[in-house]
Design goal:
mainly alpha, 17 helices, 0% strand
Length: 291
């Protein structure tokens, strides 16, 4: 199947459905419970541990680099200290238990064991066959992990591979656009589709003064209005960033082909919608609302 046969934004739409289900565990009480059982109780430490565990017992610098939009001082408060409490292997096992419990609770036992879930897992894993490791550390680390046997966990694993593959490429595009981690957050929030400032301050370690300074730099570049909305140049830049991210992330969806992508998007959308209806995400997570 040639890349020309795939509609330009088809991969992005599919990724959005997969990523929505992947992200449910970050907001799940099951994650805190399972990580607490191995001694990791601070919510921020939990976040850093579960996403970076596939990299091994790395230091704060590696996590800051790979995550991109977290304040380094916050990362260093928890990494590498978290590995003295629980090893990466223990964290990965706890994460798997949390994901299992979360998906069963949000989707139900019948859906998790369904033919549709098994089909989605096959399609997503097939797409992931075309992902590349080069310059994609979070994807490459997760690609070294075994594929779970149960369909809902295999689907989640494949969704994670595709999410991290796109994410690693996205960071390269942000750097090329001259946006540091905080500036990227400010512009994404300004689109109305990004994390609200309240959640940025609560999870990424930045404060209001730093946010305002980043916003001022963006205004000086002609990317942000005084109101906090994007200028025409800002809108164009965010559009270019997403289009270039699409280009760097095209291979897995081209490999799957238009029919496979359409079917995976349909299945993934149904799972993501069910999770959303079941209350998987905080109501104030997305938007321009202030802290």
């Amino acid at each position: 199947m040639t890349t020309a046969a795939l509609e330009p934004r088809a991969g992005r739409r599919c990724h959005n459905m997969l990523n929505s289900l992947h992200a449910t565990h970050y907001f799940s009480p099951d994650l805190g419970r399972e990580l607490g059982a191995v001694g990791v109780t601070d919510p921020r430490a939990v976040n850093f541990a579960v996403r970076s565990a596939a990299l091994g017992a790395v230091g704060a610098g590696v996590v800051t680099a790979a995550f991109y939009n977290y304040k380094h001082e916050l990362v260093a408060r928890h990494v590498p200290g978290v590995w003295e409490t629980a090893s990466p292997g223990q964290v990965l096992a706890a994460r798997a238990r949390a994901v299992d419990a979360t998906l069963r609770r949000l989707l139900g036992e019948e859906v998790c064991a369904s033919a549709e879930m098994a089909e989605a897992a096959r399609l997503a894993l097939r797409a992931a066959e075309a992902c590349s490791r080069e310059a994609r550390p979070l994807y490459a680390a997760h690609a070294d992990l075994p594929v779970p046997e149960e369909p809902h966990l295999a689907y989640w694993h494949a969704a994670t591979l595709l999410r991290e593959h796109r994410g690693d490429g996205h960071l390269a595009v942000l750097m090329s656009a001259g946006l540091n981690g905080l500036e990227a957050l400010v512009t994404h929030t300004a689109t109305g589709k990004g994390m609200s400032p309240k959640w940025v301050f609560g999870t990424r370690g930045w404060n209001r003064e730093e946010w305002d300074a980043a916003a001022q730099r963006l205004r000086e570049r002609g990317l942000l209005e005084a109101s906090g909305d994007l200028t025409e140049r800002g809108v164009a830049l965010r559009r270019e960033i997403e289009q270039e991210t699409d280009r760097l992330d095209r291979a897995p969806y081209a490999h799957l082909g238009p029919e496979g992508v359409a079917r995976l998007t349909e299945l993934g959308g149904a799972f993501a919608h069910a999770a959303l209806v079941a209350g998987a995400f905080p109501a104030d997570l997305i938007g321009k609302g202030d802290a």
